[in-house]
Design a protein that fits this description.
Blueprint lengths: L1 H26 L9 H36 L8 H36 L4 H28 L1
Length: about 150
């Protein structure tokens, strides 16, 4: 909206400059003109006033119409949005519960394996990380669902 206002102001300024150039060239002609300098200045002032008034009224009308259209076109949340929110919550919740169960099993087994053979520490950490990844997958699915709403 600011771009439109700026464009209108620039166009109006160009029109005003054109009016001033044409009227100044008309006043620089020999004294064959029927207007005095005061009358010519009054004509210029009236032209500028009418141009500025027109731009201001156009801008006000544009703002009013944009306010009306934005008020009418407010995006309404679809009826299925509630179902999408529930689906996102379930995706995250169930994935986190599953990840918690998996980490509990893997971590307890890892502690037993590492106590018998300390060289297995790296492998057990990888298995625990894979189990935690399940929660991240659920979170990603929830984000994808919420982006569609």
């Amino acid at each position: 909206m600011k771009k439109k206002i700026l464009v209108r102001v620039l166009v109006t300024m160009m029109v005003l400059v054109g009016i001033l150039i044409t009227t100044s060239s008309a006043t620089s002609k020999p004294k064959t003109s029927t207007y005095t300098e005061e009358e010519m200045q009054e004509i210029i002032n009236q032209s500028v006033d009418s141009a500025v008034t027109k731009v201001v009224t156009d801008m006000k009308a544009q703002e009013a119409s944009e306010e009306v259209t934005t008020a009418e076109e407010e995006p309404k949340e679809p009826k299925s949005a509630g179902v999408a929110y529930i689906a996102a919550a379930l995706a995250t919740g169930i994935a986190c519960i599953g990840s918690g169960i998996a980490v509990a099993v893997v971590a307890s087994s890892a502690v037993g394996a590492v106590s018998e053979n300390p060289s297995l520490l790296g492998k057990t950490i990888i298995f625990a990380g894979l189990a935690e990844g399940i929660a991240i997958y659920g979170l990603i699915i929830a984000i994808m669902i919420l982006n569609k709403v």
